[in-house]
Amino acid sequence: MQVRFLPSFPPIFFGLGAVGKIGEALATTNITKPLIITDRGLVECGVLNHLTQSISSNIDLSIFDDIPENPTISGVENSLKVYRENGCNGIIALGGGSVLDSGKALRVITNQDSPLHLCLKDPSKITADVAPYITIPSTAGTGAEITWGGGIHPDVDTPAFGLRSPYLKPDIAICDPELTRTLPPKLTAATGMDAITHCVEGYLSNNSNPISEAVALDGIKRVINYIGRAFRDGKDMEARENMSMAAIQGGIAIEMGLGPIHALSMAFSDAPLHHGTLVTVSMPAIMRFYNGLKGEKLDQVATAMGLPKGGNSGNRIAKKIEELNLEMELPSTVRQMGYKKNDLGRMIEDASSSHFNSPAPKKPTKEEYKIIIEEVLG
Ligand SMILES: [Fe+2]
Description:
Blueprint: E1 12-14, H1 22-28, E2 34-37, H2 40-44, H3 47-52, E3 62-64, H4 73-85, E4 90-95, H5 97-109, H6 116-121, E5 133-137, E6 149-152, E7 161-164, E8 172-175, H7 185-204, H8 210-232, H9 237-254, H10 260-267, H11 275-289, H12 297-304, H13 313-327, H14 344-352, H15 366-377
Parallel strand pairs: 1-8, 2-3, 2-4, 4-5, 5-8
Antiparallel strand pairs: 6-7
Helix pairs in contact: 4-5, 7-8, 7-9, 7-11, 8-9, 10-11, 10-14, 11-13, 12-13, 14-15
This protein binds fe (ii) ion (FE2).
């Protein structure tokens, strides 16, 4: 029997009011001088305040609030300056996927002399000598609060470098759905749909395991049942709580592997497009491509989505995703997202060569990717 690696995840304080556990999290991780990294939007809507009010005044706190919308090397390097100037000894990342991924990169370089771009090119530079790291998501979808991977763009218009190492696994996650209360409907929709793509691609991957499979199917159900409610009424905390849980479940699913939906996001990564929107726009074409997949897993995804039994599950899953996207006013093509480039050959190459394809149950050929990209592009 083949020996498999079953991943582990950080401990999580989960639920309304979980942010009040920050003192315990700091004590557990031995952080006495934390740097909070976040973005301007979270300062303006009071989410940062919500966190800092929960931190004892005895703690010597520093703040860097200029992480960009998509994670970049310069954003991480600027936060490193503040970390070093203030003699910090640990990181709290408060934000969406960009902030949480930036924190993973920051923890790698705090104790190194090498610049970040060299660490990104040489994964052996990522060692156990990383800064303590607490994640606090302000969105529900990326799963970055618990995963060991992430992406950092050399600059906003350049494809991201992947970061992946067990040493990047956050030490503790604090997942308080209250922090997602002010997340605008469109972002609620787009980040939430990212979670369902993680659950579906992870569940279908060739690297799946029974523990994470069960989690992924439950995550699919949760997104289907609650995303519409969270979109329509951000103050519906039952829906928010379920979406926060689905995001974590998506993070667990990611560790089984992703697939062509995420490979397609590489085809358009030369423009600063929102990741969640991109993957939900790409999902229907891949689900139709999966029609006839060997085994029962595609049918099980359809069942988890509450769809009736029958042939061609891929078509029914695709239709359901399209309906959800439409209901939540998300675009239906990449062109509608404002993507202007036309180099189809390069897009096919980037999607086809993506490492996300390797655990896929069926990898599109270049010819198939051409057809899929033309459809997704619109
Ligand atoms: Fe994703």
